[in-house]
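Appendix B, example 12.
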Amino acid sequence: MNVTSRITSIVNAAHLETTITGIPTFFLSELRYNQLPEIALPNNRRLGHLIEKVVSELINASENYLLLHENVQIIQNKQTIGELDFIVQHTETQEIIHLELAYKFYLYDASISSDASKNWIGPNRRDALHEKIAKLQQKQLPLLYHEATQTALPNLNLENITQKVCVLAYLYLPYAEKVALDADYQKAVAGYYMNFETFRQLDNPAKAYYIPPKKAWGINPASNENWLHFEDVKEKIEQNLSEKRALLCWQKHNDTFETFFIVWW
């Protein structure tokens, strides 16, 4: 995995803003630094932990924010009841912020609900955007005010801490379907999704593919150097789909690059 491409993909990812989450937004563009820091990324971390690592290093490298705490375990009666992602402080205003981070991929399925905001689901249909937002609103942010949190952060006045979220999202629409989206969602659209039969029908000799590991999801496919033909990826795709695991696919067609999901449902 190209480390620079991984870092750049996070810095440039679209944010789902307050109009969607109902929570004040922390934009990574607020972090000021002369150049992107060099970050050593461990090979054995899952995607979510990689993103946390990069954001942590970006905050540490910034000129205008201090990272006071990260991954704060909140423990009550010897049991962990939750975790706070980051506590940061603006160096000029001295504002202290409880920051929750999310890096998510959602597909739009209009058959789910007449409420469009509830139609964003995970690639394997096990999670949903509206559920993630509800968890942030009802569990993650209130955790700051739990009595056990004061024990974990005894030197902070919790009542004076601002709360923000940084929800980085990649949204995918059904292939060849027109979906009317609000601009706040549209800017996060990264591609489309299809089933295997459609993928097979769209293949031609000019196209090449790569199935990235999950920890590379979100990276610009133009940075990839290893490309394969349909027959080279066909078995892997079919195997994953038979096990109800959707795959992200990168495509190179002449000088253009696309990303899309191939789904089993």
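Residues 47-61 form the longest helix (15 residues). The chain is about 25% helix and 30% strand.
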